[in-house]
Amino acid sequence: MAPYRVLILSASFGEGHRQASRAIKEELLHHHPQAAVEIVDYMQTINPAWSRFAQFFYIQGIKHAPVLYGFFYKQFNRIPTDSTLSRSMSRIGHIIGGRKLLEYLNDFRPDVVIHTFPSSAGAHAELKRQGETRVPSFTVITDYAAHRQWIHQETDLFFVGASRVRDDLLAEGVPAEKIRVTGIPVRRPFRLTYDRAEGAKRLGFRPEIPTVLVLAGAFGVSEQIVALGKYLLDRPDPLQVIVVTGRNRRLYETMAEVAKGAMDRMRVFGFVDNIAELMSLSDLVFTKSGGLTTSEAVAMEVPMVLFKPIPGQEAANAAFLSAAGVAVVTRQMEDLHAFFERWMKEPGLRAAMKARFEPLKRDMHQTTIVRELERFLAHVKEVRR
């Protein structure tokens, strides 16, 4: 078979969609080095000005009006996938971005398009519905909930993070033969084994002391990071803290000031690309409940504290991970403090949370995206003979 040609369509709304795309490309090229794999920021490509506008309001919405964001998330999820309104929304997406997408399909001539963002999946579905393309469409759902905006009858395969999401799709009428449970894709560094002692030495930390990682999110919009950092530093028992503030420069400067005089106990970083290494040193991570970040923590088997999940997909992710026993959801700082006191004092609690990762990962990783791509395209080639 000729080398694969794969087009991956993503978007710059947080790091999750982009990191999933990078993980897919990385894995495809690992197994098929001669493949042509291209990642395109779909929103940026169809209209850069609109992409910046939408991204700004997305960030401001989750930062300043999370309840309103959650309201719209729920309302859009109430629209039946086979309704006139749903099809009308797909047509609007086709009008806005369909022409540009068709240009990419004609120029790049992919064997398959993989979508890690729902808008491009909708535009592709409309192109197929109107007979303008026959290129297969795969959708990778990057959260632990199947929002209806991801679901289109014309999609050939859905890759989901766990069997629970498969069940959600089945309830929406998606045929079982179109669904594969692959886990949300994470990059290879999160699947490696690290030398904790060596990593701790590089930070000036001691490997035997409990270490926690605080992630402020890719854009540094998580709340209460400063208060949390001060609380952790003020504890009398041995503890080491790693803080990653993302792209929020002001938060980085504030946290660097908090850490002054405590460099043996707290290290502060801005936006970094070695989160896997930092997770390998950590016994617990405080983070937002985005699909990718939590999947990375699952891959590294680091228990999570999820603080004030944003209504919508983050709340759904938090509920899933909490039910699995690998994360604790806290909505007030007092609740967070109470859990952390228990976590520090009860080795049995720490061991129990760690032990729950193995069955969870078995449920998540029933196959792989690369394996299913190979099978699908081999079948297509056989049918076309």
Give your account of this protein's structure.
This protein is α/β, with parallel strands linked by helices and 385 residues long. The chain folds into two domains: 5-183 and 365-383, 3-Layer(aba) Sandwich (Rossmann fold); 189-363, 3-Layer(aba) Sandwich (Rossmann fold). Helix content is 51%, strand content 14%. The chain is built from 17 helices and twelve strands. It has helices spanning 16-31, 42-46, 48-64, 66-77, 84-108, 118-129, 163-171, 196-203, 225-234, 249-259, 275-280, 291-300, 313-324, 333-345, 347-355, 357-364, 369-383, and strands at residues 5-10, 36-41, 112-115, 137-140, 157-160, 179-181, 211-215, 240-244, 266-269, 284-287, 304-307, 327-330. The strands form two sheets. A six-stranded parallel beta sheet has the order 2-1-3-4-5-6, sandwiched between helices. Helix 3 (48-64) packs across helix 4 and helix 9 (225-234) packs parallel to helix 10. The chain starts with a strand and ends with a helix. The mean pLDDT is 87.
